Amino acid sequence: MGMRAMPGNPYDGHTLAETIEQMSILADRAPKTVIVDLGYRGVELDGIQILRSGQKRGITRTLHAMIKRRNAIEPTIGHMKTDGRLGRNWLKGALGDALHAVLCGAGHNVRLPLRALRPSCARPIATLLAAMGVTLPALAHG
Q: pTM for this one?
């Protein structure tokens, strides 16, 4: 939903209010339910239901499915950190950190539709190249 640099490497639980504020601005409405990992233990916000990974009490089937969906998204976050190269920032200062985080998020959002379009574009291009008599070396997929 959003991406923001937090200067000084703060504890996860201390960043939730700022993250919800950013989300409210981007979506034009405040969330009623937030699903977080265990780094947010002990955090409570007025008017917002906070669900944590592995939570058992007071969980309906629908809420349990929402928690499982959030856990399925966790690898995507890890891939964005590695593919978006969030481990190394080449920009200077706090503004550079903020710009780097936003640009990595934007790059991830551009890669998603490109990945979906790749199979539909590959077949017509291969057909066109074959008609022209061009042969390409086999590419390793990985």
A: 0.57
